[in-house]
Fold this sequence. Notes:
Elements: H1 2-5, H2 9-17, H3 24-37, H4 43-50, E1 55-60, H5 68-82, E2 86-91, H6 96-104, E3 113-116, E4 135-138, E5 147-151, H7 153-166, E6 172-177, H8 183-198, E7 208-211, H9 215-227, E8 234-237, H10 240-252, E9 262-264, E10 281-283, H11 286-302, E11 310-313, E12 316-318
Parallel strand pairs: 1-2, 1-3, 3-4, 4-5, 5-11, 6-7, 6-8, 8-9
Antiparallel strand pairs: 10-12
Amino acid sequence: MAELAGVSIKTVSEVVNRTGRVAPATTARVEDAVVRLGYRPNLSARRLRSGRAGAIGLVVPELGSSGYFAELAELVVSRAARHGVAVLIEETGGVRERERDALLGPRRSQLDGMLLNALRLTDDDVPGVPDGFPVVLLGERQVGALDRVAFDNAAAARLVTEHLLEVGARRILVVGGDPSVSESAVQRLAGHRAALEAAGRPAAVRHVVTTQWDHESGLAAIAGALAAGTDFDAVLGLNDALALGVVRGLLDAGRRTPQDVLVAGIDDIHTARFTTPRLTTVDARRPAIVERALALLLARITGADDEGGLVELEPSLVVRESTTPAT
C-alpha cells in the first residue's frame, strides 16, 4: 500500500489510524490506495495495539423495506471510513429484545461505541449499559440520558401539509405507520394536525389510514381507500415508500398524479428523484444527521469535548412534480 501511494509505511499508518497530521494531498493518495487494494483493518490487532477495536456498531430496525435505513447505513459506512473506523451493522426488526441484545450483548465487546436507532427500548434497559461505553441514539426515541441526534418529524409534516394546502388540497388522506408503536408516526401525525388546525381545518384529520412503512402497504392502503369510497384530493404518505406505493395504486385505479390526486411523502429517499412523477417530499437531513452523530460518538470514544445531549435538525421541503400540476 505504501509503495502504491508513494509514501512511507509510517504515513500509511497515520492516515489509516488517524494518528498524525498528514497533508490533504498525501491523505488522498493513501485513501485511494486503500480503496484500490481493498484494505480492511485487522480489528483484533488494532485493539491489542491501542486498546480500541477501531469499529463501531450501527443498529437499525431494517435495511430493505423503506429505503431510509439502507441509505443511512451507506452514509455511516462511508463517513466512518474517512476516520479509519469500520462499521458492524445489525438489524433488529424493531423488536425490543433484539435491540437490548445489540446494546448489551456480547457483540458489543467488538466495538468502541454504537449508533442506535431504537423503536422499543425503554429507560429500564439503559442501566445495563456499562459505564464508558458510548452510545448515540438516532431518531425519535429517547432512552434515558443517552445522546441523541434527530430530525424534526413534526416540523416536516407541518411543512408538507402546508404545501399541500397551498397548492389546492382540500381533503388530505394520510397513509402512515401505527402511532401506537412508532414515535415518528406520532410526531408526523401531530405536525400534520397542527398545520390543519392553523389553517382552520381540524375536521380533515379524520382521513388517516394506519399501515406498515413500505411500498406494498401504500399501494394496499390507497386501494382500500378507493374501494371504501373515501373522498380525497391529496395523499400524504408519512414516508416516501408509502407515498410511492400510493402513486402506483392510484395509477392502477386510473387516477393520475398530480392531475387527479396530489401526493407527497417525507424522507427524500434517493428513489423519489427518479419516479414518474418525481415525488414531492421533505429532506430528512440524513448526511447532516450522520456527520453530527458520528462526530459526537467519536468524541465520546476519544474523550474529546462535545456538548452532546439532544441535537435536532430542521427539515426542508423539496417540491417536485407529484404536487405541481401543469397550468
